[in-house]
């Protein structure tokens, strides 16, 4: 701007000097030069303003690029985090698959155990029924033996009242009565032992039946827990698949 002003001053002084000398052609030349200088000065000023605007735009773009870089870095970090989460979810899915397979195998084993226990329980019930029948038969036999003894006693009393009976007949009745008493005693002892054994066996059957029922209840609870776990695993599997689909 100082050079331009100096040019203007020189032009003014020269114009004044040449005006005095009446140098008209040079005056026009200086005027043209002055206009050209003014035009270039205006053009330079416009270029300067354009440069300033461009610098401002460059600054804005640099800021935008910086923000975009920050967003890109953040997105890269998020992507890395999501990829790690996806890897963890995939591993969790594989672990869930292994868990489900183990649960299915365990469920099959429990089902087989449940079936075996049901058959065992049915066998216990059949044995219990036979034991009760045998006990009832033994009691009936004891009752019959008691009736026989009563009849023999009655016959003995009748023999005693009949004085004409022979000693041999009385001896035979006594022998028969003793035999029946011994047989009855043996039957009673056997029935007593059998009753004790059957009572103990019945008690064992009752205990076994109770244990089987408790085990059946536990198996039913285990099966229900397995079903709940499988349902929960299926839900987690669906959620993991959604994550994988969304972030891939």
TrEMBL record:
SUPFAM superfamilies: Tropomyosin. Residues 51-145, 202-229 form a coiled coil. Keywords: Coiled coil. It comes from the Eukaryota. This is Uncharacterized protein. It comes from Culex quinquefasciatus (Southern house mosquito).
């Amino acid at each position: 701007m100082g050079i331009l002003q100096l040019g203007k001053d020189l032009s003014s002084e020269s114009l004044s000097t040449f005006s005095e000398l009446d140098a008209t052609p040079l005056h026009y030349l200086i005027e043209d030069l002055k206009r050209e200088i003014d035009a270039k000065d205006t053009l330079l000023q416009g270029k300067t303003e354009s440069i300033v605007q461009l610098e401002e735009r460059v600054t804005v773009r640099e800021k935008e690029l910086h923000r975009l870089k920050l967003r890109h870095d953040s997105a890269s970090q998020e992507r890395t985090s999501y990829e790690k989460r996806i890897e963890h979810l995939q591993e969790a899915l594989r672990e869930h698959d292994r868990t489900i397979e183990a649960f299915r195998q365990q469920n099959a084993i429990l089902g087989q155990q449940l079936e075996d226990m049901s058959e065992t329980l049915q066998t216990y019930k059949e044995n219990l029924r036979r034991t009760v029948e045998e006990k009832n038969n033994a009691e009936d036999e004891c009752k019959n033996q008691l009736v026989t003894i009563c009849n023999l006693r009655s016959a003995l009393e009748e023999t005693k009242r009949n004085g004409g009976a022979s000693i041999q007949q009385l001896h035979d009745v006594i022998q028969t009565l003793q035999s029946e008493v011994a047989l009855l005693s043996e039957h009673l002892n056997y029935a007593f032992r059998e009753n004790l054994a059957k009572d103990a066996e019945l008690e064992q059957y009752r205990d076994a039946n109770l244990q089987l029922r408790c085990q059946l209840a536990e198996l039913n609870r285990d099966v229900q827990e397995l079903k709940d776990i499988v349902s929960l695993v299926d839900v987690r599997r669906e959620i993991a698949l959604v994550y994988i689909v969304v972030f891939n």
